[in-house]
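Page header: ASSEMBLY MODEL / two components / 612 residues total.
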Amino acid sequence: MIERGLAIEATGLVKSFGDTRAVAGVDLAVPRGSVYGVLGPNGAGKTTTIRMLATLLRPDAGSARVLGHDIVDEADAVRGLVSLTGQLASVDEDLTGRENLVLLGRLLGLRRDAARARAAELLDAFGLEEAAGRLVKHYSGGMRRRLDVAASIVVTPRLMFLDEPTTGLDPRSRNQVWDIVRALVEEGTTILLCTQYLDEADQLAEGIAVIDHGRVIAEGTPGQLKASVGSGALKVRLLDPAQRAEAAGVLERELGTVHLEPEPAALSAPCADGDRAAEALGALARSGAGVADFSLAQPTLDEVFLALTGRPAEEQTAQDALGPERERAA
Amino acid sequence: MSSAPGTPAPPAAAPRAAALRRALAATPRPPRASAVSATLTFGWRGMLKVKHVPEQLLDATITPVMFVLMFTYLFGGAIAGSTGEYLDYILPGILVMSVLFTTVYSGVSLNTDMTKGVVDRFRSLPVPRAAPLVGSLLGDSVRYLVAGTVIVVLGVALGFRPDAGVPGVLAALALVIVFAFGLSWVFTTLGLVMRSPNAVMNAGFMGIFPLTFLSNVFVEPETLPSALEAFVDVNPISILATASRGLMDGNAQAGDVAIVVATAAALTAVFAPLTTRLYRRG
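Prediction written out in full:
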């Protein structure tokens, strides 16, 4: 195999827009052939980092090699090997789905017939053949995302940048995008996935870098990160708030500690293990407490941030969401 | 955020596992598209937009059509003695105006592109730097051609019969489009520095509107105050209108045509590299 070494090797990447330091020295080492997650709240510098690595922005300082090519000096070589699925769906709304794919096929060097055949193949594979002739502006969010991903693999990239691929999608569309990502990795593509959902990084990524204020503040496998946060929690909502004291006693016996939620009928207890949660719920049922609903929740990004930085993930500043617009204005 | 159960999606909407594998199986990377092929492909995109979003073209064409009707029948008698004579004078001028108004939309649509994600994708493709821009202006030239043709057809319907006939009209149309291609680089530059499509539109028309009126498109400059007359005489739009009239009447001055072509070349030489640089910088 010649596919050795790192897919992405970044040291000290810095990018400022005016007075705002969007990226303040990011180091990344992404192995080939896997999904690597970049996790952080909006405005943390994820999109700016990805745009530098995809050669759309020049770093102010630092350097990076993508698949062995320098992102500044060999930008054109990098462009030949990667593809980008931006946060804003990177497809042309005023064209049909088919036209979008044929357009990219032609731009990537396919001959007319090959571009048409490839477009048909992708539309079929992504469940878009019925919508192929419709303008993309009439697509649903999920269809648009699928087309977006399809557009990124018209010619199979060696490295794919996926910037928040499931933001705003319903759970079914999200699962479809995840399936596509998994299939891509199995075929040998490396994926750099930016996301603000711990859940998503957990589902897909082998390694994760947590980024905040333009810096990497933690790195590891999803398991390591979650261990740093502690366990998840069993959350229960009762039918009758009057039964809460009694239910709290049961959960305390079963799981050790219990926490009363602000909502009068809700309570939670730390628990990482499904079996123990099931036993606790059983005990709760035997005690006669009527349960309206329950969940075994994973730690949220907020909890990861709390554990890593001692403060919650900040509210969205919409900086990343405005990415290109902002950067142009700067 | 809890782990949602993997709802089985109806087959029609879901990516099919087998087809997906096939589609994802690494395809050999084709040789890169040539500069010409990439540019023409972007031109094709521009033409598709004319097909899918005809409103823009309509917007830009309707004003000149109204001007032809209004000026000819309202002011024609007063300005030139008869509506027929005035039509002969004004039609080549309105042709110029119609096509030049359409160039503003090149900047507007580039700005619209920039605010959407699609430009990021284009910029991350291994294609020559200027291909997306030159290509879309080539596509826009089709738009210019349509805008010009509408005016000519309207004129003929109203009784416009130029001395140089069809070849003369085609030559004038070609000259106007060449100038429009040069001018549109100014608006693409504007499209990359302004914040919104509307701002581009306003700024664009704020420039092109007075320039068109302060030309000989509507009236002979001899009647104007001398300072204004001096300006109108050197206004490239006047020279373009004069050259177009000349080509349609068969008495064009080679000098006028040369000035128009040179102006278009100069605008391209200055603003095309500027646009390309701004576009790459994002």
